[in-house]
C-alpha cells in the first residue's frame, strides 16, 4: 500500500518536473522558431503556427544578418571587448591574489579588506564619474574604455576568489620552490598558475559571460562604432515587432556563444556563477 | 626571501652584512609584492573607489554641479513621483522576487532528488543563467505580446478561458428592430417582442451586422427551415442573417439565399424563468420541444454577443512589474535550485533515515528536518538574490514598452534615466547611485565579517 502510494507520488513528481522543464524550454524554443520566420509571418500569427506549417521556416534571416554591417560589426566588438577583459581580469587578479596570499608588504590586511568591501559596489555608481574621467583621457566611446571599466569592476571578486584559492596551497610547496632559488615571478608562473587552474577557469568563464552579456556599461561607454551586440540590439527594441526578423536571430546569435560555453564547461561554469553571485 | 637568506649564509658574510642582507632582501621582496598588486590596486582606486567618493560628493550638488544644495537631492528623491515610483517598485522586487525564488528553488531541489534524470533537469533550469538579460528581454517581449495570435502566454490564456467560458459566436451581430423584431436588454441579450405558443407559426429572427466572411463555414440557407411546421408541443424558428449579397433581399423576410446563423443559443422564458434552451443548427433553425401550452418569450442570451476574450494585458501599467519578475524567475530559479541542492547533498543521511524509520511522512521530514538544517544555505541564497534584485536594470529597460517604462521603473533604470536618458540631472542621479550603494552596504558588512571570521 505504502509502496503503491510512493510510486504514485513519484509519478506525480516526474510529471510535474517534465511540465516545468517544458515551460523552461518554451521561451527559448519560441525565440529560435521566431528567428527562422519572416516578419510578415510573425505579424500574422505566433511562432507555434510554424510547427504545423514548417514551410515558413528558413535561414534567410540569418543570411540577412550576415550582410547586416551594423550587426556583424557589433558581434566583433563583443568579442573584442569580452576576450581582452577576461584575460586582463584573470592576469591582474592572479598577480594580486598571489601577493595578498603569500607575499609580505605594508598594508596587506587593510587593503585586502578594502577589496572585500568593494565586492558589492554597484556598477551604477561608477558610471558618471568614470565617464568624466574617460572623457578627459580620450577613452570615452572606445573599446579600451569599455574593457577597462569591466576589468575594474570585475577585479574585487576576481582578487577575492583567487587569493582565497591560492591561500589554500600548502606552505611547504612554496618554500621548497623558494629554496630551489626561484624568483617570485618564476614561482608565480611555474607553480601558482598551474595549481590555481580550476579557480582560474571558473573565474575566466564567469567573467567572460558577465562581459559578453553586459548591456549597461557598453550602453554608456561605447559609441556607435565600438558598441557590442547587446547595445546594437537594444537600439532596435524600440520598434519592437516590425523588425523581429532582425531582433530574434540577433538575440539568438548573442546567446548561442554563452550557452555553448555553458554546455562545454558545465562544472566550471556552475562553480564560477555560484562563486560570483556575491558580486 | 628564504632563498636569499640561505645564500647569504653560505657566503659567510660579516656580522654587519648579516643584518643588512635580510633587510635588503625584505625590501626587495616588498618591491616585488607591490609590483604584483599595483595594477589591480590602481584600477580599483581610479575606477571604483574614487567614483564612489566622487558620487557621494556630487550628490550634494545641483543638476549642473555648480551649487551646493546639501541634502536636497535626497529629499527630492522621495518627493518626485518618478523616483518615488522607482523606490516603490524596487521594494516590490526585493520583497517578492528573492522569496519566490528561494521557495521555488527549495521545492525543486527537494523534488529533483527523487528522479533519475536530475542532472539533465538541473542543467536545463540553470541554462538561462548563460543568457543575457537583453536576449531574455526580447524572448519575453515576444511571449508577453498582447495579441493572442502572437504572444504565447495570451494564446494559452485565451484558449484556457474559451475552453471554460466558451466563445461567443457573433460579437458584432445586432437584431433588426421593429414590430416583428427583437429588443436589446441591458445585459446585451435580445428578447423577441411578441410571445410565442407551442404549435404556432415558425418564428424568423432577423440579425444583421455579421460580415458574410465571418459566418461559420457550415452555414446554409435558412429558407427551407423557415417554412417547416411546428408540432403541438414545440416552438420552431430560424435565426438568420437578414442580408442578401447584392442587396436584392427584403428586410425582415427570409429570402431564398439568406443564410441561417448556426450555433446561436436560444432560450424560452416563461414567468421570468428559462424553461428550455437549445442551439441553432447549420441552417439557423431551432426547435424547443416538450413545452406545455401557454405563451413563451424567446430570448437570445448575451453570451451569443459577448466580445471575444482578449487575453491579459501583461505589459500594461498594472501587470508590467509582475511580468518582468516572471522573466527574472526564468533566469534565476536554476541558480537557487542548484545552490540549495548542493546544500541538500551535505545533509546527514542518518537523520533523514531515522525520521523515515519512525514513520514520519515526506512532508514532516521536509518541514521539521530539511528546512531547518538548510537554513544557512537558504539565507545565503536569499541575501545573494536580494543584492542582485536591487540592481536589476536590463530586463526592465528591455521588456517594458516605451509608454509603460515609467510604471515599471526601478532604482537602477531611474538612475540611468535621470543621469543620462534625458533627465540630465547628475546631482539627483548621483544621489540615486549612492542610495543603491547604501542599500547594499549591509551585504558589504556581511561579506567583510564573514571573511574576517574565516581567517581566524
From TrEMBL, chain A:
Main location: membrane
Keywords, sorted A to Z: Cell membrane, Membrane, Transmembrane, Transmembrane helix, Transport
Family: Belongs to the binding-protein-dependent transport system permease family.
Membrane-protein topology: Multi-pass membrane protein
Limits of the ABC transmembrane type-1 domain: 75-265
The UniProt record lists the keyword Transport: yes
UniProt KW Cell membrane keyword: yes
Transmembrane intervals: 12-33, 74-99, 111-131, 143-166, 187-212, 246-265
PROSITE patterns: ABC_TM1 (PS50928)
Compartment list: Cell membrane
Xref: Pfam families: BPD_transp_1 (PF00528)
Name of this chain's protein: Carbohydrate ABC transporter permease
Amino acid at each position: 500500500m505504502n509502496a503503491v502510494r510512493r510510486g504514485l507520488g513519484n509519478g506525480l513528481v516526474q510529471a510535474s518536473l517534465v511540465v516545468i522543464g517544458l515551460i523552461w524550454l518554451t521561451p527559448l524554443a519560441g525565440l529560435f522558431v521566431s528567428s527562422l520566420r519572416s516578419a510578415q509571418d510573425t505579424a500574422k500569427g505566433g511562432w507555434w503556427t510554424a510547427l504545423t506549417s514548417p514551410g515558413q521556416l528558413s535561414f534567410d534571416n540569418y543570411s540577412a544578418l550576415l550582410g547586416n554591417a551594423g550587426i556583424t560589426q557589433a558581434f566583433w566588438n563583443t568579442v573584442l571587448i569580452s576576450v581582452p577583459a577576461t584575460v586582463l581580469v584573470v592576469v591582474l587578479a592572479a598577480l594580486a591574489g598571489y601577493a595578498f596570499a603569500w607575499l609580505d608588504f605594508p598594508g596587506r590586511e587593510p587593503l585586502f579588506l578594502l577589496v572585500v568591501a568593494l565586492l558589492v559596489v554597484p556598477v551604477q555608481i561608477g558610471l558618471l564619474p568614470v565617464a568624466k574621467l574617460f572623457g578627459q583621457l580620450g577613452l570615452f566611446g572606445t573599446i579600451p574604455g569599455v574593457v577597462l571599466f569591466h576589468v575594474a569592476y570585475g577585479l574585487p571578486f576576481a582578487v577575492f576568489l583567487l587569493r582565497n584559492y591560492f591561500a589554500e596551497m600548502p606552505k611547504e610547496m612554496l618554500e621548497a620552490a623558494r629554496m630551489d632559488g626561484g624568483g617570485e615571478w618564476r614561482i608565480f608562473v611555474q607553480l601558482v598558475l598551474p595549481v590555481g587552474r580550476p579557480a582560474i577557469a571558473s573565474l575566466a568563464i564567469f567573467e567572460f559571460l558577465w562581459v559578453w552579456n553586459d548591456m549597461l556599461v557598453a550602453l554608456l561607454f561605447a559609441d556607435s562604432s565600438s558598441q557590442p551586440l547587446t547595445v546594437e540590439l537594444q537600439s532596435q527594441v524600440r520598434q519592437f515587432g516590425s523588425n523581429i526578423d532582425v531582433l530574434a536571430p540577433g538575440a539568438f546569435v548573442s546567446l548561442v556563444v554563452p550557452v555553448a560555453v555553458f554546455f562545454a564547461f558545465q562544472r566550471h561554469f556552475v562553480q564560477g556563477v555560484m562563486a560570483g553571485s556575491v558580486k | 626571501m628564504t632563498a636569499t637568506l640561505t645564500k647569504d649564509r653560505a657566503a659567510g658574510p660579516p656580522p654587519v652584512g648579516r643584518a643588512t642582507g635580510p633587510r635588503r632582501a625584505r625590501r626587495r621582496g616588498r618591491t616585488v609584492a607591490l609590483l604584483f598588486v599595483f595594477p589591480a590596486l590602481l584600477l580599483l582606486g581610479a575606477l571604483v573607489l574614487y567614483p564612489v567618493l566622487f558620487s557621494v560628493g556630487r550628490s550634494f550638488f545641483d543638476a549642473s554641479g555648480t551649487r551646493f544644495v546639501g541634502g536636497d537631492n535626497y529629499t527630492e528623491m522621495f518627493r518626485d513621483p518618478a523616483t518615488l515610483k522607482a523606490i516603490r517598485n524596487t521594494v516590490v522586487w526585493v520583497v517578492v522576487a528573492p522569496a519566490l525564488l528561494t521557495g521555488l528553488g527549495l521545492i525543486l531541489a527537494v523534488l529533483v532528488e527523487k528522479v533519475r534524470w536530475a542532472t539533465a533537469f538541473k542543467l536545463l533550469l540553470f541554462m538561462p543563467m548563460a543568457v543575457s538579460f537583453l536576449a531574455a528581454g526580447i524572448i519575453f517581449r515576444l511571449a508577453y505580446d498582447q495579441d493572442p495570435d502572437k504572444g504565447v502566454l495570451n494564446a494559452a490564456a485565451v484558449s484556457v478561458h474559451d475552453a471554460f467560458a466558451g466563445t461567443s459566436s457573433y460579437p458584432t451581430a445586432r437584431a433588426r428592430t421593429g414590430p416583428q423584431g427583437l429588443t436589446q436588454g441591458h445585459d446585451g441579450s435580445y428578447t423577441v417582442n411578441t410571445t410565442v405558443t407551442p404549435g404556432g407559426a415558425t418564428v424568423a429572427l432577423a440579425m444583421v451586422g455579421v460580415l458574410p466572411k465571418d459566418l461559420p463555414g457550415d452555414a446554409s440557407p435558412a429558407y427551407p427551415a423557415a417554412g417547416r411546421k411546428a408540432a403541438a408541443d414545440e416552438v420552431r424558428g430560424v435565426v438568420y442573417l437578414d442580408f442578401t449579397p447584392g442587396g436584392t433581399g427584403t428586410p425582415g423576410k427570409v429570402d431564398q439565399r439568406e443564410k441561417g446563423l448556426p450555433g446561436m443559443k436560444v432560450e424560452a422564458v416563461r414567468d421570468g424563468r428559462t424553461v428550455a434552451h437549445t442551439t441553432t443548427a447549420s441552417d439557423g433553425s431551432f426547435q424547443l420541444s416538450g413545452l406545455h401550452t401557454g405563451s413563451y418569450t424567446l430570448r437570445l442570451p448575451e453570451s451569443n454577443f459577448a466580445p471575444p476574450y482578449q487575453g491579459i494585458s501583461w505589459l500594461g501599467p498594472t501587470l508590467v512589474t509582475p511580468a518582468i519578475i516572471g522573466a527574472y524567475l526564468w533566469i534565476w530559479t536554476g541558480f537557487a535550485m542548484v545552490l540549495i541542492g548542493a546544500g541538500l547533498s551535505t545533509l546527514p543521511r542518518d537523520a533523514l533515515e531515522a525520521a523515515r524509520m519512525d514513520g514520519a511522512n515526506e512532508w514532516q521530514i521536509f518541514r521539521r528536518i530539511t528546512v531547518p538544517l538548510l537554513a544557512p544555505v537558504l539565507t545565503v541564497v536569499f541575501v545573494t538574490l536580494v543584492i542582485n534584485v536591487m540592481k536589476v536594470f536590463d530586463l526592465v529597460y528591455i521588456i517594458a514598452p516605451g509608454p509603460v517604462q515609467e510604471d515599471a521603473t526601478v532604482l537602477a533604470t531611474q538612475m540611468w534615466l535621470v543621469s543620462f536618458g534625458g533627465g540630465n540631472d547628475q546631482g539627483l542621479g548621483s544621489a540615486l547611485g549612492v542610495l543603491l550603494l547604501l542599500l547594499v552596504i549591509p551585504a558589504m558588512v556581511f561579506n567583510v565579517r564573514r571573511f574576517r571570521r574565516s581567517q581566524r
